[in-house]
């Protein structure tokens, strides 16, 4: 499986900043994964993905996002995250 860059989003993340990072990763690697734990973080992640679609659309890239659950370790504690696989259609 190819290397997949993982962007971690918190409730305090700025969607435009995450979108810029996401667009850069997509241009470099073709796809990315966005991880978020909690409702606020998921909200910021979804907004960032929507903004990133606008950033890469002029390059002819039509982004799609596939949501899934992921078990991640935070400070030795298992937490359920929502992960979004973001890739071109």
What brief labels describe this structure?
89 residues, alpha+beta, Translation Initiation Factor IF3, four-stranded mixed beta sheet, single chain
Describe this structure in words.
By secondary structure, this protein is of the alpha+beta class. The chain has a single domain (5-88), classed as Translation Initiation Factor IF3 (2-Layer Sandwich). Helix content is 37%, strand content 38%. The protein has 2 helices and 4 strands. The chain is globular and about 40 Å long. The model has no long low-confidence stretch (mean pLDDT 93).
Condensed summary:
By secondary structure, the chain is of the alpha+beta class.
CATH topology: Translation Initiation Factor IF3
Largest β sheet strand count, sense and barrel closure: 4 strands, mixed
| Largest beta sheet: strand ordering | 1-2-4-3
Radius of gyration: 13 Å
Mean pLDDT: 93
CATH class: Alpha Beta
Strand and helix map with partners:
Blueprint: E1 5-9, H1 15-29, E2 32-36, H2 39-56, E3 63-74, E4 77-88
Parallel strand pairs: 1-2
Antiparallel strand pairs: 2-4, 3-4
Helix pairs in contact: 1-2
